[in-house]
Amino acid sequence: MKSPMKKTAQLVIVLLITFITSSAFAQQGEKRGNRPEGPPPIPNKEQVVKMVTDLANEINLSESQNEKILALFNAHFKEVKEKIDENERKQKEMETLKESFENDVKSLLTEDQQKAYDDFLRKQHPPKRRKK
Q1: Pairwise CA distance, residues 51 & 53, whole Å
Q2: Which of 8, 17, 21, 54 is the most buried (most CB within 10 A)?
Q3: Residue 31 pLDDT > 60
Q4: Which of 15, 29, 39 is nearest to 88 (CA)?
């Protein structure tokens, strides 16, 4: 027979997988509509507390389990936010490197060549369309 902690851990994992899968399907639906693309917003502290409270009520968590799971949820969403922030910072760094590189190339070209180079870059990397 499995211990109650193992059952709870398995249930939490199943719920998280369900939550992630549901989010993925919701994002697909949003892409079909007029909503912006990208991951769903990270829940704030109050939303996390509500999520865990709903979970606790649904599966009858003990106070101890509730506190531990709340801590796990908070740590998880904090880590997700840090990764998103890190990714945004890296994207900005890459954009800066790209601009620097292109300026270095242009510094070796005549004015006419610079215009032709800009046209070449636009053909190679057309601007991404944004759905409205």
Answers
A1: 5
A2: 8
A3: no
A4: 39
